[in-house]
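User: Please check token order:
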Amino acid sequence: MAYRVVWSPEAIEDIESIADYIERDSKFYAKSVVNKIFQSTEKLKNFRKLEELFQKSGGKI
């Protein structure tokens, strides 16, 4: 079962701030970093207990 990842307004603002900062030097890398952030959270949709597994593994997944 797939779950939904819900971004808080504050999280979106933080990501926008990160992109704005990186974009001062490179629009390409700003976009790349933002895409990587969103792609990395896609895993959470299918692995609801990922944090629990992470903690049990000693931080190695």
